[in-house]
Amino acid sequence: MNLNQIRSFVKLANNFSFSQTAKELHFTQPTVSSYIRKLEEELGIVLFQRTTRGVELTEEGKKIYIHARQIVESAEAIEALSDRSKAPESQLIIASSTIPTEYLLPALLSAFREEYPDVKLKLKETSSENVAQEVAAHTADIGFSGAVFEAKNCAFTPVFEDELIVITPNRKKYREYQKNGTDLSWILEENVILREAGSGTRRESLKRLKDIGIAPEKLKVIADINSPQAILQSVEKGLGISFLSDLAAKKGLQNKKLLGFALSETGFRRKLYMVTNTLYPATEAVKAFARFAGSFFPG
């Protein structure tokens, strides 16, 4: 194997696109394909599988990626020594669940880039469970999750709080339910839309229902939907009720297309976490970002 093969592999793992990899490395696309094919042949494993959005790493590829990225970073540092006017590119790969991605990170990333303009940011949206797996496998430098999941060598630091609520269409039946205060027994009679498996919102909502005496296994679940926006629209149209962050439901509540119900008299606030790897040595970019994020959000 050679450095061009390894560089092509790392770039492709980061951007999921052969054409983009070729553009960034100033190769032709057939050259990149050839490098990846030869690397797979030499290693005797399949590194990538094709998906509807491009390619993604196989489980074996994720293990190779950890070491390949170290090789590329070391090579760039060595090359920079021969030209002191040239610094190695500093890249920060962030894995994040949907709620932080859509409602917290845009402001954080913008502010961070103003202070650290030389750091290139890559954001990968996934489930909270996969965030922990990405950070543990070091295919992401840092993560943001809506729940704590068991993951080797991961530390979860709370950085923000949101409130999980029940959302329904703004219809007469549900307005009547609001008069019952915190009695949520009616939920068991409703069609329910849940976030996807691995979602922090789903996990924490179901735990809370169990705590207040509503058995999650008795819910009439009719759909699992990944996108909070799709869930909001489905609830507005009357497909069912759901459980979402107040951050996601805010607009629908304000324009009165939705109704919101607290999961207890005092509400149910859950923590959003920054996830870091305790085993792999953090780069200066990771250290700077972790410090910045830790002080960015109120409280």
3D structure, described in words:
This protein has helices at residues 3-15, 18-25, 29-43, 59-81, 98-103, 105-115, 128-137, 172-178, 200-211, 228-236, 246-254, 284-296; strands spanning 48-51, 54-57, 90-96, 119-125, 142-145, 154-169, 191-194, 220-224, 241-245, 258-262, 269-277. With 299 residues, it is an alpha/beta fold. 45% of the residues lie in helices and 23% in strands. The chain has twelve helices and eleven strands. Strands 3, 4, 5, 6, 7, 8, 9, 10 and 11 form a nine-stranded mixed sheet that branches.
Provide key terms for this protein.
11 strands, 299 residues, single chain, Arc Repressor Mutant, subunit A, D-Maltodextrin-Binding Protein, domain 2, alpha/beta, nine-stranded mixed beta sheet, two-stranded antiparallel sheet, 12 helices
